[in-house]
Amino acid sequence: MAMVGCVASRSDIVRDSLYVHHHQSPRTDSTLGLTHNPIIGGILGGLFSGLGLGIVYRGGGNTGGIDPIALIIRNRFGLQIGSILFAINMMILVAGAIVINIEAAATTLISTYLSAAVTNKVISGFNQRKAMFHHFL
Fold first, then answer.
1. H-helix or E-strand containing 102?
2. Model confidence, pTM
3. What's the count of helices (H) and strands (E) in the chain, helices before strands?
4. Tens of pLDDT along the chain (137 residues)?
5. Comparing C-alpha atoms, which of 115, 127, 133, 3 is closest to residue 65?
């Protein structure tokens, strides 16, 4: 059942990425207006995403999709959840870079990396000894 959810979640990501890629409007009036620079958007998205995901995971929850698989891997091998999700998302990102374009993939890489790093920091509670230990895992 979890594998079906994983496939469905990933197919949704691909579908949404293709939709955004092919239906981009030159008008940006409907955005929040925080930035028009995709790199800054990727950085902000990664930071806020990582903060939210870290809070969810620290509280014992998950967001569905590949989270249950990542939690099983974490419990079995002791790796950090953000790092596991980053590795899984990188496999999907490589395929997306081929289908869409390298610029969008690079922005997504920045966002995904920052999200994973912030997620791991929130879960470890910014404890230096614990964070240093997990850094080597």
1. helix 102-124
2. 0.68
3. 6, 0
4. 444 444 445 556 656 555 555 545 454 444 556 778 888 989 999 999 999 999 999 999 989 888 899 999 999 999 999 999 999 999 888 888 888 888 888 889 999 999 999 999 999 886 655 555 555 44
5. 3
What is the sign, positive or negative, of the torsion defined by CA atoms of 61, 14, 120, 110? negative
Long-range contacts of 98-103 (CB under 8 A, 24+ apart): 99/14, 99/18, 100/17, 100/18, 100/21, 101/21, 103/38
Cβ-contact 112, 122 below 8 angstroms: no
DSSP string, 103-117: HHHHHHHHHHHHHHH
The answer to whether 106 and 122 have CB atoms below 8 angstroms apart is no
Report how far residue 75's alpha carbon sits from residue 91's, in angstroms, rounded to the nearest whole number. Answer: 21
